[in-house]
Please model this.
Amino acid sequence: MRLALLNLLEEVGSLTSFSLRFTRNALFPPYEFGQIRKHLDELGAKSFPLVGTTGLIMGLILALQSRPVLARFGAESFVPAMVSVSVVRELGPVITALIVAGRVASGIGAELGSMRVTEQIDAMEVSGINPFKYLVVSRVIACMILLPLLTGIVDLLAILGAYIAMVIDVNISWRLYLHSVTSSIWMRDLLPSIAKTVVFGFLIGLVGTHQGYTTKGGTEGVGRASTTAVVISSLLIIFVDMVLVKLTVIIWG
Amino acid sequence: MGIIDVRNVVKSFEGHTVLNGVHLSVDKGTTTVILGKSGTGKSVLLKSVIGLMTPDSGSIIVDGQEIIGLPARRLDPLRRRMGYLFQGAALYDSMTVRDNLALTLERNHPVSNEERDERILETLRMVGLENAIGKMPADLSGGMKKRIGLARSLITNPEIMLYDEPTTGLDPITGREISNLIDSLQEQFHATAIAVTHDMACARIIADRVAILNDGTILREGTLKSLERTGDEFVESFFQT
Model:
């Protein structure tokens, strides 16, 4: 128990110092714009099919499940509003972040871990390349840009999925559905949600790169880095979401 | 005083002392081979010379500059004058051979695109692998990887070369080819070099001087001929391989 606590504290300390190093390196030039663009392409292409499909099905299921319950209270017309608000405020950002954590954080952890154990990171260092900027900063920034974009797509697809369910069940018109959705979403729903996704992107990128960059112990270490990256980033997403939801409620009511 | 001076270097890992007061001096333009059994700290010593590892105590002076404790911004200009061949070549496996060389060149000596492409081809030609320019590291054999690793180190025309087990993991014929290639490149570039190995065949081809590392210290140092006649059983055991 004591050892586990010490390990946890060590991990927290290491991650904190890693994030400070990230901030220092991200603020000062040279900037690796080419690498950021490359990672955006790669990570976006990797994640889009999975998050897109999940978003569409999530909206569809939400509408299918909630319509009969709301119909019992004569509140069937609230289905579009309920789906869109819950997706935009909470489900979209969190589900997207958890999927990207599973897909991207593990990939980053494995890739950098493999580079560490095969001395590729050392090779960069002796070649006068700053491996931290080149490998870590570029990936974390790419994740911070990517998450809001992917979440936006997931939100839209979920709302579309809910519309499909509504058409199947009650043959609602697109205009009425859209009006119901747009009149229920406010800036106070959108802004905290976007801010939240940037934080989730930072966490995913940071944990993935931290696990990979500090890998020890050969191929076994690479596997461990990949798995641990998913576990830690998923836990952090859920924990930070709880804190941010409370903060949003305090600020926006 | 040599261009590389290692003085009383000590390095321990979790209570186990790997280097225990190493002294070594390497003269400009010469190739010193550090011979030693596996796990005796040869690679640790080499990594300390280029600042990848920090010794617990001692001093490492490269071209008049103390390496230990040097911040990255002051270490980088010195590293730009050095090349390092890693044991497993350490090619960037997400990049083609061309990009492996281009990245190193662009970051150290910004040149025009034409000059860059010309230098990449010229360097690949030197190691006999100009046809591998578009290949990924995963498509290369162990010997080819070593050659490309060598090309990547040489593309910046380093004044100092460090070779970490250049022939490990290769069959004897490929190992000899790599050793001969290193020898001819050393002659061509007149670089100062340190090579660590336990391969006596490689040492015989490339060494001007040899240092034997054992129990964390340099046991003997001299030319190959002088070491062959030391009468020391341990030293002579290397020459019998």
